[in-house]
Design brief:
single chain
Length: about 40
Amino acid sequence: MEGSFILMFTSRSVIMTSGLLQNHRILLHIRTKELHKTTV
């Protein structure tokens, strides 16, 4: 019981972390695009 709960919590945190990384990457991509617009 406790093991499965820990496993569920770990997998959820991993999914959340990967999602945050994905969002961060997208934001970074948009920011770099806008920087290129202003410089060019």
